[in-house]
Design brief:
By secondary structure, the protein is mainly α. Helices cover 77% and strands 1% of the residues. It contains 24 helices and two strands. The protein has helices at residues 2-45, 49-57, 60-91, 97-103, 112-123, 128-137, 152-177, 180-188, 193-204, 206-222, 225-230, 235-245, 249-275, 297-327, 335-368, 372-382, 389-415, 427-450, 455-463, 468-479, 481-497, 500-505, 513-522, 526-552, and strands at residues 92-93, 292-293. The chain has a two-stranded parallel sheet. Helix 1 (2-45) crosses helix 15 (335-368) and helix 17 (389-415) packs across helix 18. The N and C termini lie far apart (58 Å). Mean pLDDT is 80; it is low at 1-7 and 278-285. Keywords: Cell inner membrane, Cell membrane, Membrane, Transmembrane, Transmembrane helix, Transport. Residues 64-268, 341-547 form the ABC transmembrane type-1 domain. This is Iron ABC transporter permease. The chain crosses the membrane at residues 21-45, 65-90, 102-122, 154-171, 208-230, 250-269, 299-324, 344-365, 385-403, 415-436, 475-493, 529-548.
Length: 555
């Protein structure tokens, strides 16, 4: 009896120790996600009012107005394209609908800045479209008007074409989950299909649609490559300019704080709006939404409306990039490009493993101890997705640069040895920025899989003497392998495409494919920029293929 009691006591001690260790890791990860925001706020508040006053009197109003205009245009465009396409492929039947419901996801593989390079090559003044127009008409450069691709509106179009799939996927899922009862009741009361959609189906799908639009807006305010290449002055470009061109960290921190406040305000507003809405299905049975058969010009119009974003957002850019790449002098197999690919793979692979490991720690601790502290740590871990990469970069560079400088000064004074920049110029700080930025995506994928693991499995493991880490290793991880692989792939591709944090924080002479594409495009060597852009696109297709498979199984 004494041996049994001792064994039970030892098991409880091991369980308590494992829980404390897991809790410590979860709290440390949450603190790491909170650090950039706190550091940006402190650096901005201690930067002096002179810098802030100068910003307010010069560039800040322009940054705010342009960013707001870009957000409004992208929000409206992604809403119209995403919701319209989702409704057509869900509620109607026309030739090619099965192909369209999958193809509409494909533009998600494109980074917006790659799309910008492709369309600038074709539509800019020296591009093939305007050159052909001048040759056919004999017009001079000032004899005609042509839409300017390098503009706020042009940047908005690029972002809309690659971000509308966020709205499309969530809206389509919401439409598929709706019962037809309320819709059919509205039709029976004399409402037209359009009126029933507007008054019944759309309000019921509003939370999902608002979530998709918010994702698109967050990506818009975080975008740097597109707006920088088009010369659009937003908060994202202002942060980079202040940090590098002007070497003014105080101005960069204060601009980053403005952008951070704007991002968090959007997130809070969307959550508040969604929290006020409650929609419930009437009746216990789930009746599938009826799909109307389209024929003649209606079928042709539906197919055209669905095909336009696919053609403009995927097919045409791929053709343009391939033609550009064939005309370039870039050798993808050269030693230099092999280095770019190696650096990109190292960063993406390391960041994916670190980020998913962090997601496992936070998610499993929340399951193990579902209290307020675990919920707070999970909430803080998700905040990074609402923070643009440039803000995270500034928020990590400021405190760690101060630490490196203080350590170097102390080592010089004490031992006469210079330590240099131990942390600031390292890959690991850049990996930490990626973890903060993309932890929310990995955590969502992990929690989605974790919901399939019944609580009885945890209880059975504990009754058999398993520690928390033993339960995680022997039960959860084998079951969650598909979800974890999805999370790894999503983070891997997001890191391959990420640009602002990489530009600011990368170690010296450690360039990636995204940086090389941006550098060549900045030098107006668009044919050369097509080569690394195509590699980024090829990698980005991997998660999109997985998403397309899920869409294909949607019904």
């Amino acid at each position: 009896m004494a041996e049994i009691q001792y064994s039970e006591h030892g098991s409880r001690r091991r369980n308590a120790l494992g829980t404390r260790v897991l809790g410590g890791l979860a709290y440390a990860i949450a603190a790491a996600c909170l650090l950039p925001m706190v550091a940006v706020a402190l650096a901005a508040l201690t930067g002096g009012t002179d810098t802030l006053g100068h910003l307010m009197s010069t560039v800040l109003p322009g940054y705010a107005a342009t960013t707001l205009l870009l957000v409004l245009l992208v929000a409206a465009g992604t809403f119209c394209l995403g919701v319209g396409a989702a409704w057509l492929v869900t509620m109607t039947r026309f030739p090619g609908v099965r192909l369209m419901e999958i193809a509409l996801v494909l533009p998600l593989a494109f980074p917006a800045y790659v799309l910008a390079y492709a369309y600038t090559f074709v539509l800019d003044h020296p591009g093939v479209v305007q050159t052909t127009l001048r040759q056919l008409t004999g017009w001079g450069p000032r004899d005609y008007w042509f839409p300017e691709i390098r503009s706020t509106e042009g940047a908005a179009v690029m972002l809309i074409l690659v971000l509308y799939p966020y709205v499309y996927l969530l809206a389509r899922a919401a439409f598929l989950q709706q019962s037809a009862t309320a819709y059919l009741a509205a039709r029976a009361l004399g409402s037209s299909p359009w009126a029933a959609f507007w008054r019944v189906s759309l309000p019921m799908a509003r939370p999902a649609i608002a979530g998709g639009v918010l994702l698109a807006v967050m990506e818009t305010i975080a975008d740097f490559g597109t707006v920088a290449y088009f010369g659009v002055r937003t908060f994202a470009t202002g942060i980079y300019t202040s940090w590098f061109s002007m070497a003014d960290r105080a101005a960069a921190a204060q601009l980053a704080l403005c952008l951070l406040g704007f991002a968090l305000l959007l997130a809070v507003a969307e959550r508040t709006q969604r929290g006020k809405a409650r929609y419930y299905q009437s009746g216990r049975r789930h009746a599938a939404m009826p799909a109307g058969e389209l024929k003649g010009w209606r079928a042709a119009a539906a197919l055209t409306l669905c095909a336009i974003p696919v053609l403009l957002g995927f097919v045409l850019p791929v053709v343009i990039l391939v033609l550009m790449g064939l005309e370039s002098e870039q050798d993808l197999l050269s030693r230099r490009y092999i280095g770019f690919i190696r650096n990109s793979l190292i960063l993406a692979g390391t960041a994916a493993v670190v980020t998913v490991t962090a997601a496992i720690c936070v998610g499993f601790f929340q399951r193990l101890r579902p209290g307020r502290s675990a919920q707070i740590s999970a909430y803080l871990a998700r905040l990074g997705y609402a923070v643009p990469g440039g803000v995270i970069a500034v928020g990590l560079m400021v405190p760690f640069a101060s630490f490196d400088n203080a350590l170097d000064a102390w080592m010089r004074a004490t031992f006469g040895v210079s330590t240099g920049l131990l942390v600031t110029g390292s890959i690991w700080l850049l990996v930490a920025a990626y973890m903060v930025r993309f932890l929310a995506a990995a955590l969502s994928a992990y929690e989605g899989g974790q919901s399939t693991v019944h609580a009885n499995m945890d209880a059975a493991a504990r009754s058999l003497g398993q520690t928390p880490f033993g339960t995680l290793r022997r039960i959860h991880l084998p079951i969650l392998t598909p979800s974890l692989m999805t999370a790894l792939l999503i983070v891997f591709v997001d890191v391959m495409k990420e640009l602002p944090a990489t530009l600011i924080m990368r170690p010296f002479n450690f360039d990636t494919l995204a940086v090389q594409a941006y550098r060549l495009a900045s030098d107006e060597r668009l044919e050369g920029a097509a080569v690394p852009s195509l590699v980024i696109l090829a990698v980005g297709l991997l998660p999109v293929i997985l998403i397309c498979r899920q869409v294909g199984r949607g019904k």
